[in-house]
Specification:
homodimer, 354 residues, mainly alpha, Farnesyl Diphosphate Synthase, two-stranded antiparallel sheet
């Protein structure tokens, strides 16, 4: 569950999924993952279909088009990015012990933890197979470059997860490392998606780097917004349990900013809550939420998020107006509830922001 | 723990590790994985160093040399094969709940299961990074081919593990699927190691396929021998708990062949033992061992293993004599305790073989 599932956002996602790119990806996913009766394929199907938002592969296709390439030529590679994303979700659910994802049993819940570990591994291998599938989407040198980019992004994801685990319960370290952590954990695969699309679409190195930066900024903004959600929306409207980050002891940006703005007694309170476990949080949650809002931390975190949306949009300014650019701008705005997207949190008070 | 750790075999492995290839690989492993203080690197170091037998990367280097390539040029890619092997061990230990490997705590035991899952994933990504590291070991088209080969081998490993889990407790299914299962689970990465070495070493497609088949046959023989160990050697001499496969309900080749040769009451006995759990097996183990030997199944499984060694050696016959060919022949013989290797089990009675 994340920000993208909040109702007002869903309309924008639905439009994307109904676009030519969305339909192409959905059609190819179903065609490439038929029911074979083999358990490994069944698990992959379970993880991949029905498809999620397909944000990353859609961004890859648009990045190819914006540089003059063809979405159809790179669809296999774009799906590879989705396989890697799915692999990380399958393993994340094992690590977090989660039984549900998007309202369905996780692979771990449906097939058991050992099988889920193997299924995630297999999806990683499928991701690399997709990049080198023949006919190659571009010149051999470009194919090699995108293999390297996907492998690097994969290692960044792992570094981000490791860093996140190390920050549990530690607001001070969180303050130092939060942005780097989400850049690795979430920004890296958005970055790779755009880089891969652009490179296979024929971009020169500089242009591919511009799109990679765009992707990374969008990913960072996306994660800040995800971390904001439990402070700006009700669980009913988002489906996200309001206490999940808190009960996992995660120092997310709103908490970090509230801590930095708080007086000493309030700081002690926040530290105490972060050290507690799920089930012990009932009374504390409203108090933390009030504190975070009162210290202006919701608005401040929203401001940080908007900075990254603006940076993403600024990268796109080098491209002439085109349908691809419009879609990528839209994703930056929609994903993060930016101006005009009308998602909860876009209208938080700004006066107290720092 | 596996066959390669039995004492007489260790001498051959020690010689390999002291060879130019072995020293090159060990030196590069230590150089590439320094202590950085980052937890992900620390876990990778734990999984990779001190190095194991390095059989697969040594085979990759020899495959390159036998086709006229240079071991030094492909050492990075050969290490990539080792990273993938290490990744599978890290995840296997999570899946099996094992706390020790080669006498040291597993990554899961030392760093926890969540970190071990992430560490295994990261090693997979490092494997692919190693293949595409610059300067490329060969032409771009060959680099792409080996990425595809490693990804395919990775998926085969996953299919083999899934199949193995499905065969638990089922001798009849085991009889049908055992060879395919070990071809996927163990043969695939030996195959990929040789294919990658040969391809980057400059082999044409046919020659690379010859070496790939050699590798697959060695891997199959290696696994049969591993499965034989608990019937032909004492735990003291091998370090392998005699009941591990039995208590996991795994229908390995000796058990399958004994079952096929047994009378109905004995079949019932074997089925009953395979259905029991660890801790309930004490009295049964000697009985099963006696039965497997009495039905000629040890000798028969040894015969099957020798067939695969012979097939591996036959593939090498197309190459002119060379130091590389001698090493690869030696690995086939040594790995599997073939003629002259003097490892336990090479001298089991042959008269009752079928």
């Amino acid at each position: 569950m994340n920000v993208a599932d909040s109702p007002p956002f869903q309309n924008a996602i639905d439009r994307l999924l109904r676009s030519a790119s969305g339909r192409l990806l959905n059609r190819e996913l179903s065609r490439r993952w038929p029911e074979t009766g083999e358990q490994l394929d069944t698990m992959a199907r379970h993880a991949l279909l029905p498809a999620g938002k397909l944000l990353r592969p859609i961004m890859a296709l648009q990045a190819a088009e914006i540089v003059g390439g063809s979405a159809a030529d790179i669809v296999t590679a774009a799906l590879g990015v989705e396989y890697l994303h799915a692999a990380t979700l399958v393993h994340d659910d094992v690590i977090d012990g989660d039984a549900l994802r998007r309202g369905r049993p996780t692979v771990a819940a449906a097939f058991g933890v050992p099988s889920a570990i193997v299924s995630g591994d297999s999806l990683i291998f499928s991701a690399f197979e997709a990049l080198v599938d023949e006919p190659w989407a571009s010149t051999p040198a470009r194919v090699i470059a995108v293999v390297g980019a996907l492998a690097e992004a994969g290692r960044d994801l792992c570094r981000g997860q490791t860093l996140e685990a190390q920050l549990v319960g530690d607001i001070e370290a969180g303050a130092r490392w939060y942005l780097e952590m989400i850049r690795l954990k979430t920004g890296a695969l958005f970055r790779a998606a755009c880089y891969i699309g652009a490179t296979l679409g024929g971009a020169d190195t500089d242009t591919a780097s511009v799109l990679a930066r765009y992707g990374e900024h969008v990913g960072i903004a996306f994660q800040i917004r995800d971390d904001l959600l439990c402070y700006v929306a009700t669980p009913e409207s988002t489906g996200k349990p309001a206490s999940s980050d808190l009960s996992n002891g995660r120092p997310t940006l709103p908490l970090i900013l509230a801590y930095q703005a708080a007086a000493v007694p309030e700081r002690r309170e926040l530290l105490a809550v972060l050290g507690r476990r799920a089930g012990e949080l009932d009374g504390d949650l409203d108090r933390v939420r009030d504190l975070v809002t009162a210290r202006g931390a919701v608005a401040a975190a929203h401001g940080r998020m908007t900075e990254y949306v603006e940076r993403a949009l600024a990268e796109l300014a080098v491209f002439a107006p085109s349908p691809g650019r419009t879609v990528l701008e839209g994703i930056a705005r929609w994903t993060t509830g930016g101006p005009g997207a009308g998602v909860p949190g876009a209208d938080v008070p700004q006066g107290d922001a720092r």
